[in-house]
Amino acid sequence: MMVILLALMYFMMIRPQRKQQDQKKQMMSAMKPGDSVVTIGGLHGVINRIDEAKQTIELDIEGVYLTFDLRAIGRVDKQEPVAPEAPKAAETTSEAPATDEKADADATEAPAAEAPTEDKKED
C-alpha cells in the first residue's frame, strides 16, 4: 500500500515539476537578442544582450536598458519577422479615399444647406 502511495505521489507531483523545469531550460537556452520577453514581475522588453558568465540579461524596454538575472525571465516570445513597408503604404492609400469620400459627402451637403438660407434672405 505504501509503494502505491509513493508511486502516485511521484506521478502526480515530482514528474510534472521535472517536465516544467526541462521546458524552462529549453526556453532559456533558445533565447537570443531580438526576442521579446516578459519578466516574472510583468515587464515587457526586447533582449539586447545575454551574459552567460554572469547569468544576466539586458533588456531594452522602450529605450531604457535594464539588467536582470536570467531567472527573472518568465516568458519568451520569439522575434517575428518584420513585415515589408509596402503593405503599410497600401493600407495608407486605402484610407486616403475614405477621407476623400467624407470630404466629398460634406461638400455635397454644404451647398444643399446653404441653398435654403439664400432663399430666406431673398424674402
Describe the structure.
This protein has 123 residues and is α+β, with helices and mostly antiparallel strands. It folds into three domains: 30 residues; 51 residues, SH3 type barrels (Roll), CATH 2.30.30; 41 residues. 54% of the residues lie in helices and 24% in strands. The chain contains two helices and five strands; from the N terminus they run H-E-E-E-E-E-H. A five-stranded antiparallel sheet has the order 4-3-2-1-5, with no helix packed on it. Strand 3 and strand 4 form a beta hairpin. It is elongated. About 8% of the residues have low confidence.
Task: Explain briefly what this protein structure is.
With 123 residues, the protein is an alpha+beta fold. The protein is built from 2 helices and 5 strands; from the N terminus they run αβββββα. Helix content is 54%, strand content 24%.
What are the SSEs and their pairings?
Elements: H1 2-29, E1 36-39, E2 44-51, E3 56-61, E4 64-69, E5 73-77, H2 85-122
Antiparallel strand pairs: 1-2, 1-5, 2-3, 3-4
